[in-house]
Amino acid sequence: MFLWNGELVSEEEIQVSYNDRGYYFGDGVYEVFRIYRGQLFEKQAHMKRLYQSMHLVRIHVPWDEEALAAKLDELAADFGNGDGYLYLQITRGAAPRTHTIPDQIDPVMLGYCEPYASPISQIKQGIPAMTTEDIRWHQCNIKSLNLLPNTLARQQAKEAGAEEAIFIREGMVTEGSASNLFIVTGGVIRTHPADRLILEGITRQVIERIAEEEGIPFENTACSQDELMAADEVFLTSTTREITPVISIDNQPIGSGTPGPVTRQLQEAFNRFKL
Ligand code: PDD
């Protein structure tokens, strides 16, 4: 089943207008929720971020947070007890193409679930990454459908034999193309502050909580590209990647070139947390 404008329907009932502003302008926002054994992981935090994104781009939906969350539960229940993810997007709606926002426009919502399993070997062995210039706008805190800089960076990484692109803005590390980035130096975890230059990941929030529980110092401070390359450990986090060690960047090994002890400690704690 699909969630279509607040109703659970079959695929045949979905009709997207050629005038949809998501299609013309990428005018919309989205969320990716993880499903572990049929349960939506950190649902409340995702809902909060979704409504915050909508608020910031001035999309007004006729569903309050609670009503929409109940619909997502129905969608997840239809998916069953397996592992997967729930994709949800809300565009501003359909209207003849003009840059200004029409006074009367109904948002268009689409949601669905897909089976998905964590990339275990990458999570265990780590991945190579590459750095690239952060050419995005200054409101990366909004989970917007405008993902062209992200997809281009990711493609660039793929063509260079890397698994993720790490964005560098004016010499400082911001985040990955679809993940948050952390370094570990002298036992201290550091990540870019949750300001307008990054998306505040839900997994990132979980890491901050876990680090506190584990007694690992955690700093919300940006690091330079030089500090990134000299770090003892680097890892990235997202709903789909969980905690993935980065073992080389731009073909240079990070630390010992294998997943480090702090990263592994966090992975173990995360595995307990998601149960
Ligand atoms: N992306 N930063 C960016 C730019 C992202 O696109 C994502 C997630 C994250 C991590 O956020 P979270 O921990 O809430 O997943 C950080 C999703 C998974 C995607 O676009 O598919």
Automatic annotation (TrEMBL):
The keyword Transferase applies. Homodimer. This is D-alanine aminotransferase. The keyword Protein biosynthesis does not apply. Signal peptide: none annotated. It comes from the Bacteria. Belongs to the class-IV pyridoxal-phosphate-dependent aminotransferase family. One of its GO terms (molecular function) is D-alanine-2-oxoglutarate aminotransferase activity. Its cofactor is pyridoxal 5'-phosphate. Its EC number is 2.6.1.21. Gene3D superfamilies: 3.30.470.10, D-amino Acid Aminotransferase, subunit A, domain 2. The lineage of its organism: Bacteria, Bacillati, Bacillota, Bacilli, Bacillales. Acts on the D-isomers of alanine, leucine, aspartate, glutamate, aminobutyrate, norvaline and asparagine. The enzyme transfers an amino group from a substrate D-amino acid to the pyridoxal phosphate cofactor to form pyridoxamine and an alpha-keto acid in the first half-reaction. Keywords: Aminotransferase, Pyridoxal phosphate, Transferase. It is an enzyme of class 2 (transferase). SUPFAM superfamilies: D-aminoacid aminotransferase-like PLP-dependent enzymes. It catalyses: D-alanine + 2-oxoglutarate = D-glutamate + pyruvate.
